């Protein structure tokens, strides 16, 4: 018997914006090639019951488990094969999914909206195999792109840039930069006490400000394109630093200005994460800790980038004043092994075993007439 899914459907061209307003139990209609980890975690947190993708959720270009993560969370995933013309963005319409067809309710009747293809473990297994087969070529292309652009951009990292006066407070201070990389909230939960106790200056990159505030940690700065951060976070009292592109455009400043909030512009090369690291470095921060920042081929392919020249140059420049804490929450599973109670119990057990071995060993040695070796 085929699985039937029914509910209201909500659509947005940008998944990170859709998760800000989609209600729990709804069906998400996204346009997101190769669903990334952050979007998938957001959709799960929203409690969606299904995801319908106008693009390809898993292309096989590179190996990832993001679609599988949705399936394991009980969320069905479909790609649109053939979409019939629709007049406007879907916003709460009632839909029905039966087998490979998506129906939408119009004038009291369900009409076909699209032919769709479901994902299952077998499909994902085949796509992972495709990704493994093309890995060598993908890696070569990515590395070539990175080296090519790094050579073009390296001169822009030599001269001290002009920064807003607000960054002077970073001088000789320890700074933490938080971005919305995969599982960044788990890392924050693990590190929260240390950050609060040491009173580190916190720079949030875009939507990471929402995660910080949700955990009771107010960012001192919010920096970036301001396209994935909520209005509530923008109004939290943090210093707002809007990313200005090399061509002079700044969509971030347009949004912040429309809210009537004060802000500063910064034009540095690279991603918003790169910009935050560079700003802290040139402000002579004593040390810079990174949480949730992206680095590596998979991270950048998820972002639709074919290289990471600026990020490589940024990390080289910051050098030994930089500590990347990405994934540190994984240490938590081993913390119990270092607890005082465990150590005491282990010591007692070892003493008992050692004592037993010595007693039994002495008996064996006596039998062999080898007392001289005791």
From TrEMBL:
Gene3D superfamilies: Thiamin pyrophosphokinase, catalytic domain. Residues 158-297 form the 6-hydroxymethylpterin diphosphokinase MptE-like domain. Keywords: ATP-binding, Kinase, Nucleotide-binding, Transferase. Pfam families: MptE-like. SUPFAM superfamilies: Thiamin pyrophosphokinase, catalytic domain. InterPro entries: MptE-like, Put_SteA-like, TPK_catalytic_sf. NCBIfam families: division_SteA (NF040608). This is Cytokinetic ring protein SteA. It comes from Alkalihalophilus lindianensis.
């Amino acid at each position: 018997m085929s699985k039937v899914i029914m509910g209201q459907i909500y659509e947005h061209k940008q998944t990170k914006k859709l998760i800000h307003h989609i209600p729990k139990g709804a069906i998400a209609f996204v346009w997101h090639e190769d669903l990334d980890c952050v979007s998938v975690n957001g959709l799960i947190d929203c409690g969606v019951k299904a995801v319908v993708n106008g693009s390809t959720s898993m292309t096989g270009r590179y190996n990832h488990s993001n679609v599988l993560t949705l399936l394991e969370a009980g969320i069905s995933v479909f790609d649109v094969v053939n979409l019939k013309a629709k007049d406007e963005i879907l916003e709460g319409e009632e839909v029905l999914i039966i087998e490979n067809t998506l129906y939408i309710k119009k004038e009291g009747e369900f009409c076909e909206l699209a032919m769709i293809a479901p994902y299952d473990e077998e499909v994902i297994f085949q796509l992972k195999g495709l990704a493994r087969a093309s890995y060598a070529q993908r890696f070569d292309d990515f590395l070539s792109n990175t080296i090519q652009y790094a050579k073009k951009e390296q001169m822009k990292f030599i001269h001290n840039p002009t920064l807003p006066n607000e960054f002077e407070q970073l001088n000789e201070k320890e700074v933490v930069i938080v971005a919305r990389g995969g599982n960044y909230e788990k890392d924050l939960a693990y590190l929260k006490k240390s950050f609060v106790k040491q009173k580190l200056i916190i720079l949030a990159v875009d939507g990471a400000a929402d995660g910080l505030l949700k955990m009771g940690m107010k960012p001192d700065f919010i920096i970036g394109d301001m396209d994935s951060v909520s209005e509530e976070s923008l109004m939290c009292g943090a210093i707002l630093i809007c990313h200005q592109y090399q061509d002079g455009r700044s969509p971030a400043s347009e949004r912040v200005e429309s809210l009537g909030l004060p802000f500063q512009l910064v034009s540095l090369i690279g991603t918003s994460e790169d910009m935050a690291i560079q700003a802290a470095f040139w402000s002579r921060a004593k040390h810079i800790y990174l949480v949730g920042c992206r680095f590596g081929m998979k991270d950048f392919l998820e972002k639709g980038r074919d290289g990471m020249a600026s990020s490589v140059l940024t990390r080289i420049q910051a050098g030994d004043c930089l500590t990347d804490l990405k994934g540190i929450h994984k240490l938590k599973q081993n913390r119990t092994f270092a607890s005082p109670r465990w150590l005491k119990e282990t010591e007692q057990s070892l003493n008992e075993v050692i004592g037993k071995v010595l007693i039994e060993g002495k008996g064996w040695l006596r039998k062999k007439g080898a007392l001289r070796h005791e």
